Amino acid sequence: MFTMDRRCLILGSAAVVAASALSRGYAQSPTGPFKLDPLPYPTSKNEPYIDAQTMEIHHDRHHAAYVNNLNGVMAQQPDLAKRPLLELLTDLNSVPEAVRTTVRNNGGGHANHTMFWQIMGGAGGEPKGDVKAAIDRDFGGFDKLQDQFNTAGTRVFGSGWVFVTVARDGKLALVSKPNQDTPLMDGQRTLMGNDVWEHAYYLKYQNRRPDYLKAWWNVVNWDKVSERYSAAKAGTLTI
Ligand code: MN
């Protein structure tokens, strides 16, 4: 069988892996059934704002653990393994109660981090095109979005995330979530989001989460955010 991995190997590009993951919709493989896609850039790409060691531990250990835990459930529940991650997260009540919390935490973690790696590795700056227009319309400007986003991220008590959600008509909204919960669980789609678990910033920022939130904008990849925005409006954005 001519697998995705083989095509990527032949083309020899990590960027192709990332693009394929986006078009495929979720990081799911026929054999895993879930798999950890490689980071689409070197761990040093987000320096100096996010250090390479944090990126390596975050992706290779934390995200990997979510994928492994999720696959542990799938080994016991083969019927679940046939369903896309988005469907499991959107309809958690259909997941057997014995494994529901594990799927919620680890499936949410897998979806959130898959999105997170995609929309970083950039050079920050200003949003562009349709995304800029939507931010201006729905938040009153990029500076106002940043203020509201950073405030929401600071206010998450303990571990969680802050997201910008995108509706099918392109409307944006700010949502924060505890733990590894995701707006996907409410039937929404995430345009972008930031991880405010201490594991995302503690080595470099220690308890200074507001400084991390402010610095994070310097690594946003607005081209990827624009791709997700277009996909959301086309109805093809999954996780
Ligand atoms: Mn994380």
Q: List the quaternary state of the chains.
A: single chain
What fraction strand?
Answer: 5-15%
Small-molecule components bound: manganese (II) ion
Low-confidence stretches: 1-25
- Percent range for helical residues? 40-55%
**Count of DSSP strands:** 3
Strand order of the largest sheet: 2-1-3
- Distance linking N and C termini: 26 Å
Net shape: globular
What value does the Rg take, in angstroms? 17 Å
- Please work out how many helical segments DSSP would assign: 11
Give your account of this protein's structure.
Helix content is 53%, strand content 8%. The protein has 239 residues and is mostly helical. The chain has a three-stranded antiparallel sheet, with helices on both faces. Helix 1 packs antiparallel against helix 2 and helix 3 (52-76) packs antiparallel against helix 6. The chain is globular and about 45 Å long. Manganese (II) ion binds next to helix 3.
Task: Summarize the model shown.
With 239 residues, this protein is mostly helical. The chain has helices at 4-11, 14-24, 52-76, 78-81, 85-90, 97-118, 129-139, 142-155, 202-205, 209-216, 222-234, and strands spanning 160-166, 172-178, 190-195.
